[in-house]
Amino acid sequence: MRHFLLIAAGVAAILLAAAAGAQKPAVYPAKGQSAQQQQSDDGACYSWAKSNTGIDPAAVAQTPLPKPRPGGERLKGAARGAVVGEIAGDHAGEGAAAGAVIGGAKARQNKAAQQQQAQAQQQQTLDTYYRAYGACMEGRGYTVK
After folding, report:
1. CA angle, 5 as apex, 4 and 7 as ends, to 5°?
2. Is residue 133 pLDDT above 90, yes or no?
3. What single string gives the DSSP state of each residue in 31-81?
């Protein structure tokens, strides 16, 4: 149980970090650009970064993460447990139950790992877009953080 809580806490930390990192960078008008000019430059850089990278950050942010694929861990664990229980002395049912519990824990670990991988991929995609956006805004005289 403690192992599962550590995995859950790790997943939560990664999701929060990814959500924070995927935000649009802060832009400061370093050369005294007006609010209207900044809005115009923002729109131009949004379009340029989108066409340059092929990434639309609005579409990426709205795309749901893929659902983890079941791997049959519970069934495999039950089968292994039944075999071990039978070998140990006619306790196939007890072995299958124990194996299913272990397989379920493995399934949760695999699901968490798949979610982490999908979230990291989405984050990397947004980072690529925002690097291009930031380069455009810096080229127009803004400080980007």
Report:
1. 65
2. yes
3. T---HHHHHHHHHHHHHHHHHHH---HHHHHHSPPPPPPP--HHHHHHHHH
Please, are residues 144 and 25 in contact by the beta-carbon 8 Å criterion?
yes
Q: CA torsion sign, 83 to 3 to 66 to 120?
A: negative
Q: What is the pTM of this model?
A: 0.58
- Greatest Cα pair distance, the chain, in angstroms, is 82
What are the tens digits of pLDDT across the range 55-108?
999 888 787 766 666 666 666 665 666 555 556 666 666 666 666 667 667 777
To which residue do tokens 């071990």 refer? 84
Inter-residue contact 112 to 7 (CB < 8 Å): yes
Instruction: Please list, in sequence order, all residues whose beta carbon lies within 8 angstroms of the beta carbon of residue 86, skipping any fewer than 6 positions away.
Output: 92, 95
